[in-house]
Amino acid sequence: MQTNTIDKPRIHATEKEIVPRILVRAMFAMVMICLLMVSVYTWLDGPAQYTAPDSPVVIEKTLYLEGNMNGSARVFSEDRALVAEYSPEEGGFLSGMWRVLQRERTKARVDLDGPVVVRARENNRLEIFDPSTGWGADLMGFGADNSAAFAKLLK
Fold it and tell me: Residue 116 region, left (φ>0) first, then alpha (ψ -120 to 50), else beta?
């Protein structure tokens, strides 16, 4: 009885390899080397690189953010007076920051409606800081339009 070659399981592909085995091994080696380098740097307590340069604070305001999943947002001053109200089309970034704050506060198990501090620094950088969790972000990393949304609140 003659068996058809189609019925036999193929252990090794006889066709030409799509990606040569040496390249797959080289990519794996590069990933492992990068992982090793980052691990060693972390274990040796290497300083954080590429952080925003520290500069004196020029303006600082304590604000309360309130957002909605549809993108609308409201901003209140420290005494809870309404500072600004944004429609879903205008408040997308502020509402997104509110969601980030909600997530960070939930992880830290702190009050969800605490204040945030918005700071303008001498080197023209803006940052947001949540005193209840210690979380903060340099707003320049989100683009000029998004950081301008917070710059308007400092005026």
Answer: beta
| Residue 93, token pair as written in the block | 């970034």
| pLDDT tens digits along 5-21 | 555 555 565 567 688 88
How much of the chain is in helix, strand and coil states, percent to nearest 5?
Answer: 35, 20, 45
Q: How far apart are CA 93 and CA 70, in angstroms?
A: 11
Residue 92, helix vs strand vs coil = helix
pTM to 2 decimals? 0.64
Range 19-37 burial, b when 16+ CB lie within 10 A, else e: eeeeeeeeeeeeeeeeeee
Q: What is the CA radius of gyration of the chain?
A: 26
